[in-house]
Amino acid sequence: MSKLQGLGKKSELQLNQIGVYTKADLQKIGAIPTYIKLSEPHLCFLYALAGALEDRSWIDVAQNDKTRLIIELDNYKNI
Asked: Under DSSP, is residue 11 helix (H, G, I), strand (E, B) or coil?
């Protein structure tokens, strides 16, 4: 996991604690459900998860997809 763009060793450890060990695991669960399982850390972690799935920098995700991800996160919470 730490080889994915935007995710380091600390992120990898946190993801492993919730059963996410590979990119395939992350793809299966999705960025937003994974983020919520992590007890909602800083939003930058959400951007990093989305970026890891799309092979993009979390900064690029934050700059270009921030609003969409926040809306999706709010919608997911309200289900």
From this structure: helix
Q: Is the dihedral of CA 25, 43, 75, 71 positive or negative?
A: negative
DSSP string for residues in 15-65: HHHTT--SHHHHHHH-HHHHHHHTT---HHHHHHHHHHHHT--HHHHHHHH
3-state secondary structure of 79: coil
Q: What is the CA radius of gyration of the chain?
A: 11
Tens-place pLDDT, residues 9-66: 999 999 999 999 999 999 999 999 999 999 868 999 999 999 999 999 999 999 999 9
- Longest distance between any two alpha carbons in the chain, whole Å: 33
Residues 6+ apart with CB under 8 A from 39: none
DSSP secondary structure letter of residue 5 = T
